[in-house]
Structures are given as structure tokens and as C-alpha cells.
């Protein structure tokens, strides 16, 4: 039986901090549904009803497109080791681009990730926990470094060009606004300052 909560408990936050992967689901009223796997130490629990995650450059830009049109978002975590559990977070998300004022507030909370292009700030209004007894066991062996290496090799100017070529429309043809909101310069360094990196926030 699933259980529902209005906010994250301490045990939920601990579980999130132990996970190496999570999944993000978004859609507009008439778009295709997008589900993306995320990892690379990219998520922070900011409070019992607020989480944020850092999005790096990829071939698509569906999540940002959807959230700007329809802000609903679901984040799902699964236990692949230990006792079975699935944890879902439901709520409304805001996309924060590099040129938005909130970027400088949120970006220093994360470890540096090459190619960072957006932050998603989710206000959680429902937490659901279910059994997950059909989820198989998997052993974590390490993170892939291919995407980060690719972004580092392209550099800031190469990433801007990639955004222009590959990230300006969703697969349904909707505008992502990445050119207007990200390409007017990189207002913050690609690396978070040492004295502003997270210390106590839960992270994935």
C-alpha cells in the first residue's frame, strides 16, 4: 500500500541522499511525456517541501520547455539496494536559467558540473511512498564521466553554440528560451566557489 505525506520527513531525506540516480517526469497538456534519468551529485533538498536540481547540457531540452509552459513535475527515486522503496515527489517547478537572478543564489549550493545550463526549483506538495518490491537489485559501480568530459572540451563558447544548434526547441517544436536566458554571457563561473559548496544539504 502506498502512503502519502504533505512534506518530506527526515527518513525520506536520508533515503534521497543515499540514491545515485533519480528520474524526472514532465509534460505540457498536449506534449509528449518526458522522463529523464539524472545523477552526478545534482540534487539538493532545501527544505521539507523544496528540492532543487542542476541540469547539465544534453542533446534535448524537454524539461525546461515543459516547465515554462506547465510547471508540474514528478521526481522519482527507487531503492536498488537494501529494503524496497519507491519515493515520488510531486509539485510545481520553476526553471532558473543562468541569466535569472535566482541563479547566483542557487548555483553555489551544488558541486561544480561542467555544462550546467539550468536549475529546477521544485515546491513539493505531495510525497508518495510505495513498496517497490518488483524493482530489481543493482550494484552501483561509479558515475560515467563522458558527458562532463564532453562539456569541458567544448568550453563556454562551444556550449553556447551547441545550445543554439540543438537546444532551442523541444521535440514537439516548442520554444525553450535558452538563447534569450542563457547566452547573454555566463554571469557565474562554471565552478562553484570553494567556500560556497554544500556542507549539510542532502544530495544525490
Class from secondary-structure proportions: alpha+beta
> What gap, in angstroms, lies between the N and C termini?
26 Å
CATH homologous superfamily descriptor: Electron Transport, Fmn-binding Protein, Chain A
Number of strands: 9
| CATH fold field value | Pnp Oxidase, Chain A
Q: Which ranges are low-confidence, i.e. pLDDT below 50, for 5 or more consecutive residues? A: 185-200
Helix-strand string: EHEEEEHEEHEHHE
- Compute the number of helices: 5
Largest beta-sheet characterization = 9 strands, antiparallel
Give the averaged pLDDT, no decimals: 91
Measured as a percent range, the helix fraction is 10-25%
CATH architecture: Roll
CATH class: Mainly Beta
Whole-number total of structural domains: 1
State Rg. Answer: 17 Å
Tell me the β content: 25-35%
Compose a concise summary of this entry.
23% of the residues lie in helices and 30% in strands. It has 204 residues and is an alpha+beta fold.
Amino acid at each position: 500500500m502506498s502512503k502519502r505525506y504533505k512534506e518530506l520527513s527526515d527518513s525520506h531525506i536520508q533515503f534521497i541522499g543515499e540514491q545515485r540516480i533519480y528520474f524526472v517526469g514532465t509534460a505540457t497538456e498536449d506534449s509528449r511525456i518526458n522522463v529523464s534519468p539524472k545523477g552526478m551529485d545534482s540534487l539538493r533538498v532545501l527544505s521539507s517541501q523544496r528540492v532543487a536540481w542542476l541540469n547539465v547540457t544534453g542533446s534535448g531540452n524537454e524539461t525546461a520547455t515543459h516547465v515554462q509552459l506547465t510547471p508540474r513535475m514528478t521526481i522519482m527515486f527507487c531503492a536498488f539496494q537494501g529494503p524496497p522503496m519507491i519515493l515520488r515527489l510531486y509539485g510545481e517547478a520553476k526553471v532558473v536559467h543562468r541569466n535569472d537572478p535566482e541563479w547566483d543564489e542557487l548555483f553555489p549550493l551544488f558541486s561544480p558540473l561542467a555544462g550546467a545550463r539550468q536549475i529546477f526549483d521544485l515546491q513539493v506538495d505531495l510525497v508518495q511512498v510505495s513498496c517497490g518490491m518488483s524493482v530489481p537489485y543493482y550494484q552501483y559501480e561509479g558515475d560515467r564521466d563522458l558527458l562532463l568530459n564532453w562539456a569541458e572540451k567544448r568550453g563556454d563558447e562551444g556550449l553556447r553554440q551547441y545550445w543554439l544548434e540543438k537546444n532551442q526547441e523541444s521535440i514537439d517544436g516548442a520554444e525553450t528560451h535558452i538563447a534569450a536566458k542563457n547566452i547573454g554571457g555566463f554571469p557565474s563561473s562554471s565552478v562553484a566557489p570553494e567556500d560556497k559548496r554544500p556542507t549539510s544539504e542532502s544530495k544525490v
